[in-house]
Amino acid sequence: MLGNLINQGRIKSPWVVHFDCGSCNGCDIEVLACLTPIYDIERFGILNIGNPKHADVLLVTGTVNHRNKHVLKNIYDQMPGPKAVIAIGACGCSGGVFREAYNVVGGVDKVIPVDVYVPGCPARPEAIIDGVVAALEKVKTLLGMTA
Amino acid sequence: MARTILPFGPQHPVLPEPLHLKLTIEDEIVVEALPTLGYVHRGLEKLCEVRDFNQMVQIVERVCGICSCLHALCYCEGIEQIMGVEVPRRAKYLRTIWGELHRVHSHLLWLGLFADAFGFESLFMQFWRVRERIMDIMEATCGNRVVVSVNVVGGVRRDLSPEQCQWIEQQLIISEKEIRQLQTTILNDYTVKKRCCGKGVLTKEQAYQLGAVGPMLRGSGWAQDARQTGYAAFGELGFEPIVEYDGDSYARCAVRFRETLQSFDIVRLAIARMPAGETAANVEGANEDDTPRIISGNRGGIMQSYNRDKHHSITAAPPPDLDIPAGSLAAKVKGKPDGEAVTRVEQPRGELMYYLKGVGSKNMDRVRIRTPTFANIPPLLAILPGCELADVPVIVLSIDPCISCTER
Amino acid sequence: MLETIPLSLDEVVAVAKEHFDGGWRLVTMTAVDVGEAGFEIFYHYDKDLVMKHYRLSIPKETVVPSISPVYFAALLVENESRDQFGICFSDIVLDFGGHLYLEAEVRAMPFCKVSVAQKQS
Predict the structure, then answer these.
(1) Which InterPro entries does the entry mention (chain A) (predicted)?
(2) A23-35 pLDDT, tens digit each
């Protein structure tokens, strides 16, 4: 009963943490733009927080390089389950225009499992919000809430 | 006294980007700060060997998404210098307009983040709400919100119709009014002043010797701005830099705030004086081979996909023409760059320098990018020792760090 | 065309000192791989928005005296050149030892053309 209530809360109000791997800032500022009055993801209960230990959804922007892949793995490991990962932008999905650069490992999925890919260079805020909603379906499955 | 070493970053709520600082503290006072970089290093200067010099425009735009237009502008000016291309006057004015709009959006973004750093979340939201208006102008005139790919070697890709110019002016009037309403809070509020005044003081001598650039340098009393060199249309428009003298976080904030309003004036002036004519010139270098230039189709329809009026509580007139007029991109690119050039433009964060070397092939031999934050990190390391731990986020943010610029 | 002033290895620090005292600002340094001939290092100075460029040509594996004791701002760019080209600088005030950007697992000196040629073959 209580667990059910908590699960309902998780779905109704997912907390997201944002981590910037080697992004050009384009997607980062679009993630931030989601928080601001025009797009305002808080009206859907989505809250941006700084601590990965409180988060349900990890938003990753940018390519992974050899130095930040350890940080990315570390942040992912700190998040409690059930969790979902969203790769944002062309770089997060595949490496984008930088995939041939020498210090680039590739997309986020080279390091951690990714549930939702949001394309775009940079991804539009509407697309990012859509991505979070799509990721919640996965969290629902993990919680066994799909009817 | 016992010393503690405190890691600051790479993932930190106040930093949108990964920068790691190793802070050695005694009680609450920072005695030493050591940076660790490389979390965003991609090595994109090296990509000039696999992409030709026209494609590199798209790569350098992604050095930093916030000031992408100015990176492309600096790069294109360099190539034009090497190949001896004279850019049409209208293109110069258009470059200035989009460049200054980028400065406005970047400064508003920073003012918001800065407000957030000392806990004024509502102010953060207010600044970002105004910023969305500027983003709408970008989208309506270029087809994308953040990375506006308007610059090409030889000119610009897009043109502005007279109706669009008029609409931009209307939007600027509303934005300026909204920004002025926030002035009392960001510049005169007691709490804000307590958090910023006298924090992270960079003296006039230090600023110069440590090579600070941009608002960091002008906040310490130096009237130096790369726009004075007259790139794009600044040679004809004239320019006076904005200077503050205290050298603290508050001075840097004031410089950026005043520059935002100044950029509005520059955009208006540029629109008023913009001559008619072509928007791109033929590019002809020493060699005769054709290098194909990729011309993208008209993406103006993207704006129609969602109803904009829903998003704005105060609605101005919608953009008059959703089809973006493509510039006269019939201009041909012939030949290949052969030679060296150094160009500078003023980015929102400060002076940006490109060194370009071509050796007569379609790929550049070397593209070196000196970004403003790269120059502002040594001054940051100099002002952090002696400050309180609680002020570190404010001081770090006051240099407007752009790590993806720094590391490229 | 870029006007440059040639510079020899022994003059590097003296010229830097002279510019520092004369009120010049160090904009940055640029390292360029010129193949067989080694490296070229440019020193870009600026005063009142006028730039001056010095060109130092050195064979590979030369140790260049660091100007970071004079211009503190040079420390990042010297470390960067060490990372990307493997140019060694003596007495950098803060030496990252070739790991400013790069982890140990990345190919060393990615900007050098010789190593690129080796990779392609």
Answers:
(1) Complex_I_20kDa-like, NADH_UbQ_OxRdtase-like_20kDa, NADH_UQ_OxRdtase_20Kd_su
(2) 888 888 888 888 8
Indicate the range of B170-174, B341-345, B356-360 predicted with least confidence: B356-360
**Residue B318 above 70 pLDDT?**
no
User: What are A74's two structure tokens?
Assistant: 């570390």
| Domain CATH number, residue B346 | 1.10.645.10
pLDDT value of residue B296: 42
Angle between helices B372-383 and C74-85 (to 10 degrees): 130
Residue B306 has pLDDT above 50, yes or no: no
Confirm if B17 and B40 have CB atoms less than 8 A apart: yes
- Quote the pLDDT of residue A101: 79
* Counted domains in chain B: 1
Q: Is residue A99 part of a domain?
A: yes
Quick check: is A29 in a domain? yes
Strand order in the sheet with C25-33: C5-7, C50-58, C39-47, C25-33
In this structure, are residues A65 and A25 in contact, taking their beta carbons and an 8 Å threshold? no
- The range of the structural domain enclosing residue B242 comes to 52-295+329-372
Say if residue B294 carries a ligand binding annotation: no
Which residue of chain A is at minimal alpha-carbon distance from B47?
A: A101
Provide the token pair at C17: 């000192």
What is the widest separation between alpha-carbon atoms in chain A? 53
Which CATH number does the domain housing residue A113 bear? 3.40.50.12280
Total Cβ atoms within 10 A of residue A126: 14
B322 within domain boundaries: no
Cβ <8 Å between A66 and C105: yes
- Report which of residues A11 and B255 the model is more confident about: B255
User: Which residues form the domain of A98?
Assistant: 14-143
Domain borders along chain C are 5-120
User: Are B128 and A33 in contact (CB < 8 Å)?
Assistant: yes
Structure confidence at residue B323 (pLDDT) = 55
- Interface contact A36-B311, CB threshold 8 A: no
Q: Is A53 on the interface with C (CB under 8 A)?
A: no
CA–CA dist A22, C106 (Å, integer): 16
Interchain pair B43, C110: CB under 8 A: yes
CATH superfamily of C5-120: NADH:ubiquinone oxidoreductase Nqo5 subunit (3.30.460.80)
Asked, for residue B318, whether it belongs to a domain, the answer is: no
The three state secondary structure string of B323-376 is: CCCECCCCCCEECCCEEEEEEEEEECCEEEEEEEEEECCCCEEEEEEECHHHHH
Q: How high is the pLDDT of residue B238? A: 78
- Work out the pLDDT band at C63, boundaries 50, 70, 90: confident
Please tell me what DSSP assigns to residue B285. -
- What is the predicted pLDDT for the residue at B307? 40
Mean pLDDT, rounded, for B26-44: 82
Complete DSSP assignment for C17-57: HHHHHTT-EEEEEEEEE-GGG-EEEEEEEEETTEEEEEEEE
B387 marked among binding-site residues = no
In a domain, B211, yes or no: yes
Short-list B251, B243, B265, B305, CA closest to B104 = B265
- Report whether B150 contacts B296 (CB < 8 A): no
